[in-house]
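Q: What structure does this chain adopt?
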Amino acid sequence: MSPLDRGRGQAEAQRVATKRLAFRRGPIIALAIVLAAAMGTVTWRRVHDPDRRVGPAPTVVGTECGLGQPPDAVLAVDGDTGRLRWSRLVGDMDDYWPTGVAVARGSVAVYSEQGRIQALAIEDGTSRWCSEGGVVAAVYDRMFTIDGDRQTVELDATTGRTKLVEAAVLTDLLESAAGPIAVQEKPVDRAVQARTLTVTDRASGQILWTKQVPGYQLVTTDSLVLVNDQTNGTSRVGSLDIPDEFTVTAYRLDDGQRAWSRRFPRFGELMLAGDQVYLQGWPDRTIQAIDPDTGKVIWSTRHDNPGQTVRYSEPGDLTAVASDPSTGDVFLLLKSRRPYRD
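A:
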């Protein structure tokens, strides 16, 4: 397959994929996993914005991604210090906005729920392979998904090739990775920002504890459940009630007692990757890595989307986080706040 003509300054239509699967939404297994696994010849349309800085040219094995100059970016940072290792623009500016990342066997899979995937090398961010598809889940250093025919497939993280597997294989792996304790949440009422947490033993089904806590979103580690409370305990909802600081409270999984509570400057959602929790502050977009056991800030730094233009800057919203346990590196997906130029 010939490479994309990168010398042209205007948008041009490229050959479309010779084989496209019709993406159909349907029931999603466990972690909301959906991927189209057609690994035929894939070529994406390249859109050129003359005001956007050109990203690094992709090095692709077996197919073309046609990255062009999109607004979203993946950043690889050191998990211990937050220092930037490399950054890479991703997406194709064709209504396929990346929504998540997954890491396995040396590849960072950047996926879109609408049906596109690109795998980057964890060492330097160069492209390894591309495919049409959706959401990818990495479990025990393996990548799984559901194809357009709603069949469970395993995705080779190195080559992008797929093979069918029994649905029970993925289900068993997900249950094993989930740990012995299950946490269920239920909104108390739409008028308040509070959740009822129910913690059960997976093996016996016995309820360990249940309690109502202020907050609207949570993440669970091996020993704690962390709740993001943007009302600081008042449970009130409304633009006039949003304080300058939000509270994160950690409850122990074994007995439901509070382990710690700490306030942070306004931020979006809590995100868990590996053994650290991440958040992005508003409005300065500073990203912080938090020790979930203590609430201590491990590092705090601002990482901008490198796809800036001469007309405006794009700080980027932190959309997804994944980690590589073998290296300790963390991969941040930053989405442009203004995907279209004025």
